[in-house]
Design a protein that fits this description.
Elements (H helix, E strand, L loop, with lengths): L15 H52 L3 E5 L15 E6 L14 E6 L13 E4 L5 E2 L1
Antiparallel strand pairs: 1-2, 1-4, 2-3, 4-5
Length: 141
């Protein structure tokens, strides 16, 4: 009885042609994937920034209810004062807003949270310069 033996090649590995074809296919795949990755990263930045703002708006309402005083969130460019701008992409401030001008930080107001420059690549434009909630959780103004 004869047993079939496989003849082993002395040269095992890739040829230059196989390596070149592999590199070309890899280059084509990368060329197709990079633009899609950029869109994916931009979409994620937009989602993250909007989630941060919504979280702070919800915090504003919850703090108004818990503290039993009006609480506001306003757009801020310097992280210390309200900017009176509808551009929220430079940051915002959550503060108690129970005396003085509505939507402005004055002497007795307490700053609860400061969030500066959420993401430099996303523009956040709103219809107002501030959002104010009353002690019952209802939006004021």
């Amino acid at each position: 009885m004869k047993v079939a033996r496989r003849k082993l090649n002395a040269h095992q590995g890739f040829s230059l042609i196989e390596l070149t074809v592999t590199m070309v296919v890899g280059g084509i795949l990368l060329t197709l994937a990079i633009p899609n990755f950029r869109n994916f990263a931009a979409d994620n930045a937009l989602i993250a920034s909007s989630n941060e703002l919504v979280t702070h708006i919800n915090l504003t309402r919850a703090q108004a209810i818990n503290r039993n005083v009006p609480v506001s969130i306003c757009a801020s460019g310097d992280a210390s004062t309200c900017s009176n701008s509808t551009r929220w992409d430079t940051g915002w401030i959550v503060f108690t807003d129970n005396t003085g001008a509505k939507g402005e930080i004055d002497g007795s107001d307490e700053i609860l949270r400061i969030h500066s420059d959420p993401n430099g690549h996303v523009n956040i434009l709103g219809g107002g310069t501030y959002i104010r909630y009353g002690p019952t959780g209802i939006r004021l103004d």
